[in-house]
Amino acid sequence: MKRLLLLLLFCTTAHAEGSFALYDYEQHDYQIAYNADEVRPIASISKLFTAITIFRSGVDMNEKVPVQGKSSGHFPNGLLVSRNDLMQAMLISSDNRAAETLANTYPGGFDRFIHDVNEYIHSRGLLHTSIEEPTGLSRNNISTAFELISFLGSIKDNADIRQYADQRTAELSIPKGKRLLHIHLHNTNPSIFKFDNILISKTGFTNPAGRCVIMLVEKDHRHFGVIVLGQKNVNVRSIIANSLIIAEPLPAKPQEKEQSDPIEFDWSLL
């Protein structure tokens, strides 16, 4: 544990801001947690909730739907775009209009989408998590690091999510009249360009939420959840996230021993 804490000494600019957690899914054990029960806006991490709700609905991902949204995005309103391309834009480059379109063209409409996403949340026992809209722009899209670890655990083996949420870049060619609209998607997470063991990734940012990221990483053939919320800038978020990614996993606990409480990081060490 001391070795893990030393890695987090790099976070000298954080000054106890935000929250974070590192969780071992195979051992069902928190390696470290800081302020992980604090309820916070989660910004575009919300888009993973949007994604799983779309997949669970069983809609045809190849079907082209009209782009319709009030936020900015890569696609002009009215353009017919496949849900597959919208999903890529939403999860790779955090396209807000793509997220809105997926919700607006959901079977039963936007209100049904909101009902279904929150029904899924409640079915997972996430008592402090709520989604008001699909993009994360609302400060009322909230959760905790603990509950995001639980949510990530519920989607970590989902092949559809993994298909999109580990891509660094993608190139789309969308018919627009007699020509093609060429769109380059670039992942918003700097860590995904640094490490090859990130299986799921989604960043987030709004002023109320600060800089956030959720990741599923693989180390020593074990899956780990990495959550970082409420950081003041990308650099601090990346320092914490990268430290958690490279942290050497703690040894497995003996089976007869009970799971320990999450380790709280002592910022007085800084």
Q: Please estimate the helix content.
A: 25-40%
Give the overall pLDDT as a whole number.
90
Count of individual beta strands? 11
Structural class per helix/strand content?
Answer: alpha+beta
Tally of separate helices: 8
CATH class label: Alpha Beta
Within the CATH hierarchy, at the fold level, what is the topology? Beta-lactamase
SSE topology string:
HEEEHEEHHHEHHEEEEEH
- Which superfamily, in CATH terms, is the homologous superfamily? DD-peptidase/beta-lactamase superfamily
Radius of gyration: 19 Å
List segments where confidence is low: pLDDT < 50 over at least 5 consecutive residues: 1-14, 256-260, 263-270
Short description:
This protein has 270 residues and is α+β, with helices and mostly antiparallel strands. Helix content is 30%, strand content 25%.
Describe this structure as you would to a colleague:
The protein has 270 residues and is α+β, with helices and mostly antiparallel strands. The protein has one domain: Beta-lactamase, CATH 3.40.710.10. The protein has 8 helices and 11 strands. The chain has helices at 2-7, 46-57, 83-92, 96-104, 110-123, 145-155, 159-165, 234-246, and strands at residues 19-24, 29-34, 40-41, 64-66, 80-82, 142-143, 169-176, 179-186, 198-206, 210-219, 222-231. The chain has a 5-stranded antiparallel sheet, with helices on both faces. Strand 1 and strand 2 (29-34) form a beta hairpin. The two termini are 16 Å apart. Mean pLDDT is 90; it is low at 1-14, 256-260 and 263-270.
